Predict the structure.
Amino acid sequence: MKKIILIGGSGILGRYYAEKLSLNNEVHVADIGLKKKKINDRRFNYFLDIKNEKKVNTFFKSLKKNHGSFDVLINNAAFTTEMAIKKKLNKKDYFLTKVWDDTINTNLKGPFLTCKYFLKYHHNRTKDQRVINIGTIYGLNSPHHEIYQNQKFFSSLSYSSSKAGLLGMTRWLATKYAKEKTLFNMVSPAGVYNNHNKKFLREYTKMIPQKKMASEKQIFSAIEFLISENADYVLGQNIYVDGGFSAW
């Protein structure tokens, strides 16, 4: 049984990851959308704003004090376009500085801080440990902007930029800590089906060779592999789970 810290557990994917991981592991889930609560003997929830360095420091320090060292860190939290819309930020203004700041602070600064304090309090040079950062196919590939026209959601410039930066950080850390048995990798999913309307679904899946959106299970399979013993020679990789989108 591994001890896992999952950052970001209130969204569609985060909830799925938390549920599946806690079947066979001890999982501590932190999110700005959660309250501190012990779900059962293998699953614990916490409120955490990963933009706040002092709070992140305290969180990782407290975990070490109360639960000992952890084996795995998964950075899944993100400021998405859906969150921007909920805050009533203008979706047509792709250069809105407020959206840029919120996105970069959550999607790039946040994982920077969680990696920083995971290494500070939990890093063990003699123990196999894993860090998995969650990206997107739009981190290194541009979206097809036309399919987002006349939709209630949109593809964000700041979101793509933050995830591209996250890949750079992942690879820097991967080579830095390779000899110390902490392996850094990234998983970049395609869009996960979440009751999208028929027009968007039709246009989006034209870009996917498999002609369908991803499921939570398909994305989780890559995470499950990366925390397994079978991935002990996988380092600094960006694993696309995208139905072939990146192969065009």
Observations:
- The chain is about 40% helix and 15% strand.
- The longest strand covers residues 182-189.
